[in-house]
Recover the amino acids of this structure.
């Protein structure tokens, strides 16, 4: 029961997070990002199910093509004209070279056909994982200007300084929401390879998880700085 990710639970968690953000920061950019994450989470259910399901039609076509190739090779060998007086050395070498070339070409074609399904799934998985990577960077952009030091009473503002709209407690909650969204991105990415055992897709998922962990670590450094402020230090 607890040995695999439940896509329904992930969607429900993101839905709850969206409501929490809407209630505290209505009509904010972060709220729109969370709704986009909720949309991707809903799509991830169908995608992960498609990755896990064998594509029977594609497999049937692959087997038919392999059988045609094998049949064609058998027909060629059956109708080949063998010299009655035996092979000369040069002819034997040329014949073996031709047979080797045909074997390599047929083997490469068979390998190509046998891995078509995996490669199609891998391409779609990498595209979906790239969406999550991009969304993680979008979340990072939202927290980028949330500098705790600007809440100090002696902080110096300039004409180009970002507009300060959040108090200390609100900023902590805002940053915490960003961290939660990054964590949920990692869970969606892991969902894609839960039943799709592909090393390339798994590496991409690990990279997304490393990215979200790194970004979340920066966010929690800001939260720790805010928690260390005293009431006199804040505006």
């Amino acid at each position: 029961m607890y040995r695999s990710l439940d896509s329904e639970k992930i969607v429900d968690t993101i839905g709850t997070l969206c409501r929490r953000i809407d209630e505290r920061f209505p009509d904010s950019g972060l709220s729109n990002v969370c709704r986009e994450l909720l949309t991707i989470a809903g799509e991830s259910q169908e995608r992960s199910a498609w990755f896990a399901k064998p594509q029977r039609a594609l497999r049937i076509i692959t087997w038919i093509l392999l059988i045609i190739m094998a049949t064609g090779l058998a027909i060629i060998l059956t109708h080949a004209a063998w010299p009655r007086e035996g092979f000369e050395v040069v002819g034997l070498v040329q014949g073996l070279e031709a047979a080797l070339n045909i074997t390599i070409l047929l083997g490469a074609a068979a390998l190509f056909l046998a891995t078509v399904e995996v490669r199609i799934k891998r391409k779609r998985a990498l595209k979906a994982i790239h969406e999550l990577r991009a969304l993680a960077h979008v979340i990072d952009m939202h927290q980028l200007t949330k500098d705790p030091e600007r809440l100090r009473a002696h902080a110096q503002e300039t004409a180009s300084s970002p507009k300060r709209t959040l108090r200390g407690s609100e900023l902590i909650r805002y940053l915490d929401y960003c961290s939660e969204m990054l964590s949920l991105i990692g869970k969606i990415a892991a969902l894609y390879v839960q039943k799709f055992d592909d090393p390339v897709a798994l590496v991409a998922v690990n990279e997304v998880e490393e990215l979200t962990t790194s970004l979340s670590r920066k966010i929690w450094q800001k939260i720790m700085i805010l928690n260390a402020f005293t009431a006199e230090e804040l505006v």
